[in-house]
Design goal:
Blueprint: E1 20-24, H1 30-52, H2 58-67, E2 78-85, E3 88-99, E4 102-110, H3 119-133, E5 138-143, H4 148-156, E6 160-162, E7 173-178
Parallel strand pairs: 4-5
Antiparallel strand pairs: 1-2, 2-3, 3-4, 5-7, 6-7
């Protein structure tokens, strides 16, 4: 997989550019584990805040993080991509084949402090390329009502909401996108 980068004007308007790079990384690497913890903590806390008015219990959080090892996000049928902003780990996207021609996106996440700087788009494009590399002709994903930033990102990138493709108790929106044919 090729590294991909996007450049933008710095937040101070100085014209200084901070590059985004994306590359495959083992799910057990230090960067991948730290980003998984940040992702899971955020989505879990958001769910509990909306539904129960509280943050995730610390012991429950630790159990859930340890239980989801990222199985399926390793070759030959999957990949975990880590995005770096200015060289520092900043986001992830997981891709796994779930059926012939069908890839599923998971763990699509950019650290909150770096949102709005193009990382989500860079990650999503790299994830689609990775899905094609795994032989997928389309990708699917699910998300929740409270993850409005994610839903907006998917819509901007041509994902179409459709009927449920799973029975995950936390899924409230299901998206799909056909990938263009690979070019040599």
């Amino acid at each position: 997989m090729h590294r991909r980068s996007s450049r933008h004007v710095g937040p101070d308007g100085s014209g200084r550019h901070e590059p985004w790079t994306v590359a495959p990384e083992p799910v057990g690497s230090g960067a991948a584990v730290a980003l998984w913890r940040a992702y899971y903590t955020e989505v879990s806390d958001r769910w509990y805040e909306v539904h129960e008015g509280r943050h995730t219990d610390a012991a429950e959080l630790e159990r859930a993080i340890a239980e989801d090892t990222g199985a399926g996000l390793s070759p030959p049928a999957g990949v975990l991509l880590v995005a770096r902003h200015g060289g520092e780990p900043a986001g992830t996207a997981g891709v796994r084949l779930v059926a012939p021609g069908t890839a599923e996106l998971t763990r699509v996440f950019v650290l909150p402090a770096l949102r709005g700087k193009g990382g989500g788009s860079v990650l999503l494009t790299a994830a689609e390329e990775a899905a094609q590399g795994l032989g997928a002709t389309h990708v699917r994903l699910d998300t929740r009502n409270d993850l409005v930033e994610a839903r907006a990102l998917y819509a901007r990138h041509g994902y179409v909401e459709g009927p449920p493709h799973n029975s995950d108790v936390y899924a409230e929106h299901w998206f799909r996108k056909n990938l263009p044919p690979r070019t040599a």
